[in-house]
Amino acid sequence: MATKGNCAMNLSPMQPILEISGLTKRYAGGLVALDNVDLAINRGELFALLGPNGAGKTTLIGAVCGLVRPTSGTIRAFGHDLAKDWRTARARIGLVPQELATDMFEPVERAVAYSRELFGLAPDKARIEEILRSLSLWDKRKERIMALSGGMKRRLLIAKALAHEPDLLFLDEPTAGVDVELRRDMWKLIGAMRERGVTIILTTHYIEEAEEMADRVGIIRNGRILMVDDKAEMMKRLGRTEAVISLASPLSNIPASLEHFAIHLENAGSSICYRGGDGTGKGRSEVADLTKALIAAGIDYTGIDIRESSLEDIFVDLVEERETEGVQ
Amino acid sequence: MTFNARSAWAIYKRELMRFLRTAFQSVLSPVLTTSLYFIVFGAAIGSRMPDLGGVSYAAFIIPGLLMLTLLGETTSNSSFGIYMPRFTGTIYELLSAPVGVAETLVGFVGAAATKSLILAGIILATAMLFVDYTIAHPFWAILYIMLVASSFSLFGFILGIWADNFEKLGIIPMLFLTPLTFLGGTFYSIDMLPKPWDTIALANPIVYLVNGLRWTFYGTSDVSIGVSLGLTLGFLAICVAIIAIIFKTGWRLRS
């Protein structure tokens, strides 16, 4: 696909492409879907917004894309206030919704062409062909949407969102309900869009997805942003190494020479569990030191099971931790 | 005020395409219905009826029959046009696009009005097969048909936004529009009604629409053309105002 020519926009290189400040959405029934959300998205990044069901991810996207009316707060995209200059801003924002919402009777090619013209751009058959080919939909261009498989329909929604060449693209659960192979294909596709300079905000249940692709990760729960950080930094700061060393003979307590390690006995002393380090490999190094110390102390072992914590572990810990804080 | 003509054209084209997908049904149904009315009321009953205001009964009912189809089809086309994207969820695309109330109305309402004008042409052509008639004020007839088609397209648009199920979508045309049109002088002149029904009939807004169109056809009607025109323009203005409020508040469109 063509690279974006208008990426220069009206922003300085360091200015966020999207700035959300004090955004609150309170529904008539009293439900607070977004609670004073502050968020800044940098140009060209792939930002993953993680959160359990009902956390406020889709509401947040809806507020930016014009589907939800915020109760208070401001949203600025490309330097424009969305409450005032919504036309200018929206022309450069694309949305791939979570639901497979399409006109089932419409042919694929016409549906994508409509999306382009709806956003005020001149018809461009070559561009539509390019998009359809990149999403492996060109052969299906004359088919009615109802004839497409679920995966193809999801790709079609991406094609429709890309038809007006957005600078900022929201992908709301793009791989929900798709098989593993298609999910991998989607990841490649999203990676390719990002390489072309499109800023992508992705919501997902699959933490693995965020771990695979995101530059930065935001965690949202009950309408509040719990944390926003660079993925690598988050892993480094909150990541842990866990190692279970099975002993040849059980121990009744930890010898004094090993007490400085972050370990404890498990399974009636038949194994030592290490939990420590960070996301940079410090834990592995400490496990190596631990094994040396075990040998030096004359403690024999029969096996080592070692694993690094994933983004999912961090996410679960963080959400549970805040839940506990909330209860207290 | 910014107006994105390309966006409006995209909506308009798409809505007409939707009409063409069901063109056979959309065209055949009114042609068949109108033909039946002409056979029953025009030929069978009409041959025993005296002329009304110097116009044969079969010719007299043409504006009323045209209005009957126009109101029903325009309202349902327009309400369906906006209700379906809401029902299927595809409205997200319209709401997230740089498209305002003006483009949306020109697209949806313009397409619904166009479909109605096509139907009006077909009905008038069908009428020619059964009745010999001439239109006294063709320019005003076209203008008045366009005005009614636009007004009821807007009305249908409001219905399509108000309705949250298919039953509600059909209830207004079925329970109000059709009966009021039948009672609005489609098949008779209100002068033919006994007192006090001739006065009560004036409370039916459709009387003014039917008679307004009848004046453009034959130069005579039960009510003044000025009143008919004024009421139709007033209805149009009210519909535009309601839609502007809907878009401003996001009622039933944005959560």
Largest sheet, strands/sense/barrel of chain A: 6 strands, mixed
Average pLDDT number of chain B: 89
Q: How many helices of chain A?
A: 10
- Name of the CATH class of the largest domain in chain A: Alpha Beta
What is the 3D shape of chain B? globular
Query: How far is the N terminus from the C terminus of chain A?
Result: 53 Å
Could you explain the architecture of this structure?
Chain A has helices at residues 57-65, 86-90, 108-118, 125-134, 150-162, 180-195, 207-213, 231-238, 282-296, 311-327, and strands at residues 18-26, 32-41, 46-50, 72-77, 80-81, 93-96, 168-172, 199-204, 216-221, 224-230, 241-247, 263-266, 271-276, 301-308. With 328 residues, chain A is of the alpha/beta class. In chain A, helix 3 (108-118) runs parallel beside helix 5. Chain B has one domain. Chain B contains 10 helices and no strands. The two termini of chain B are 25 Å apart. The chains are: A alpha/beta (328), B mainly alpha (255). The interface between A and B is medium-sized, with 32 and 29 residues.
SSE layout and pairing:
The complex is a heterodimer of chains A (328) and B (255).
Chain A: E1 18-26, E2 32-41, E3 46-50, H1 57-65, E4 72-77, E5 80-81, H2 86-90, E6 93-96, H3 108-118, H4 125-134, H5 150-162, E7 168-172, H6 180-195, E8 199-204, H7 207-213, E9 216-221, E10 224-230, H8 231-238, E11 241-247, E12 263-266, E13 271-276, H9 282-296, E14 301-308, H10 311-327
Parallel strand pairs in A: 3-8, 3-9, 6-7, 7-8
Antiparallel strand pairs in A: 1-2, 1-4, 4-5, 9-10, 11-13, 11-14, 12-13
Chain B: H1 5-21, H2 23-45, H3 57-88, H4 91-96, H5 101-130, H6 138-162, H7 166-186, H8 197-200, H9 205-218, H10 225-249
Features:
heterodimer, A: 328 residues, alpha/beta, Rossmann fold, Alpha-Beta Plaits, six-stranded mixed beta sheet, B: mainly alpha, 10 helices, globular
